[in-house]
What does this fold into?
Amino acid sequence: MKKSCRRAIIAGNWKMNKTPKEAEELIRGILPLVKDADCEVICCVPYVDLPVALQLTNGSNVKVGSENCHWEKSGAYTGEISADMLASMEVPYVIIGHSERRTYFGETDVTVNKRIRAALDAGLSVIVCVGESLEQREQGITSELVSMQTKIALNGVSEEEMKRMIIAYEPLWAIGTGKTATSEQANEVCSVIRNTLKSLYGEKVSEGTTIQYGGSMKAKNAAELLAQPDVDGGLIGGASLKPDDFAAIVDAASKG
It folds into this structure.
């Protein structure tokens, strides 16, 4: 199957940025710039911004996502949000396993899998993040590590449920550092992920699954990264907070 048969998806990950009022301003800035996009566009926003984001994007081509969810439906988990809570708001997407969740908040491959299971059971679509540290890359274990992360994350996920899964390759050494994997490095690891999917589900699922790159993709490097055969989109951090930059990346994906 050709790359053109997969969904190109650009998702903005706002992280811990923007009050509801600031979110309204940002979304109003983004909407007219991406209204003719020939790719899927998602804004993943902090919990407090979900109501305004859902309201403003209603009827538009921009979808909304959450930045995390818990694996339990309810309980004594102070500060957490369940997948069912997101579903009740009609939030369609959720990011799970972001490198910052793994690095700062004790997220593990096992808890990533549990969160994915909860999200899928609640009817959400999932962007799951995998990626290696600089030390692991220098040790030459990137392929083995990313393949393992992918397998554990997708444990118990059916072939049918893979239609609601997006995988984002996020090298930890390129998150928030300004460093970016070369287009060849990004494609190499995305290819590893795709081959892992093939071993788990077969060629149809492997070739039909969108795999994003998520390490400091910017307006100036998006076209080169998105031109790679196994890079189908981007999970965008800092550039997603700047309407013109985010729109430029969406435009690169639309042309890619």
About this structure: The CA atoms of residues 167 and 211 lie 5 Å apart. Residues 183-201 form the longest helix (19 residues). The two ends are 16 Å apart (CA to CA).
